[in-house]
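Suppose a colleague, Dr. K., hands you the sequence of a protein chain of 478 amino acids and asks what its three-dimensional shape might be. Before reaching for any lab equipment, you can write down a predicted structure in token form. Begin with the sequence itself:
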Amino acid sequence: MNLFSSLTRKVEEFKPIDPSTVRMYTCGPTVYDFVSIGNWRTNMLGDLLVRTLTYSGFDVTYIMNITDVGHLTGDNIGDADTGEDRIEKAARRERKTAWEVADFYTKDFLEGFEKLNLVKPAKFSKATDHIKEQIALVQSIEKGGFAYRISDGIYFDTQNYEAAGGKYGELSTLDRIKEGARVQPNPQKRDPRDFALWKFSPKNKKRDMEWDSPWGKGFPGWHVECSAMSMKYLGEQFDIHVGGEDLRSTHHPNEIAQSEAATGKKPFVRYWVHGAFLLVNGGRMGKSEGNAYTLHDVEKKGFDPMALRYFYLNGHYRKPLNFTWKALESAANALNRLREAVATFRGSRERTVLSEDTLKKVDAYRNRFRSAIEDDLGIPGALGVVWEVVKSNIPGYDKFDLLMNFDQVLGLDLASAVGRLAPSDIPAEVQELIDKREALRKEKDFREADRLRAEIEKRGFAIEDSSEGSMVKRRKDG
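The predicted structure, expressed as tokens, is then:
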């Protein structure tokens, strides 16, 4: 398997440190608001990488962090050590505590994770659950002579790190990071590139989230959590670190510096994998532009979240992907066509003895799919193989078998989604009956729920109930 490394800036053969398992970490969300579809694309990258590694025969230990403290608003203007804590700010906006805000948006994120059928990590690691580990990491950095104190916190000493042989900023695409040219540098910093390891609480104000430390009451800097938690669960050196390309300029270089300073310059991560930005209508996506769409926006427009997953599959992770509602509609239509095809193939007669020519075709499709995904996650090419299979002349049963195999990577849940209708395909009056029936089932009023089922069936639709929820289909005789 080959993978592009942001550190070496080239595609390399993937070789894990330990041949028996791949250790992988992904930067997760800061839980102060609903996750945008741009951020979901990064989560999708982690998902596809885990699925591809697993498909290729690797065992994967996968960790994702959840940032619920310490990410300051100054990150938007180029200095993540300034501004307000995003979650504390959201707490004022919503008239809740910071803990309530973090809990609400964490739950929403996990629900979205399910809707997009993303592979769950071995652990979702919360920053606030690992304050002890973050303090210990800062102490190690300080003991090595790579930290100093100023009025608002404990900072990493970049110059001392470089003097000791460390290389700062190699990962970054910003040449200026090596010169220290950043927005409005703090005059107390020894070097503008230095960054906060531990921030002090304001003297005249009590924060919702603050902890005692050897340096005084405060909270961890944003960068520290990823180093502390990844090393706790994956070791001081591990294989893959995933994130969006916006983290490549400072957040990830800071992770490398503080981690290697704490471990005696052991190489921190072997492969850094970064996903490109999601554009909207050809331009930048952002809240200031009013186009930072969320999964809720997608659903309100009547789209199945899995249509968004299919949309992501059309772009290579290292290239910008342009989102439009028309493009999402095209993805939804393609997904529905694929589901219909799979339903047809599933209904084919049982497998017969295949000719040598057919066996060669089946093997060729499987090999081409695998070659595509193992060539730096060439998912668009793999999706092309899927449609070639659909249109091919091999037997339907074997098409179904191949597509189920491919879906281990694509994650479209084709087996269970066959026949399921998108919300936009269900008339409003029928959807209202479906919603009422679901509420009745939760209340255990099954007699009235059965009456509504009969009413729904009169209108040409059928419902299949299972432990995973209800699936709506058109009645074959409807």
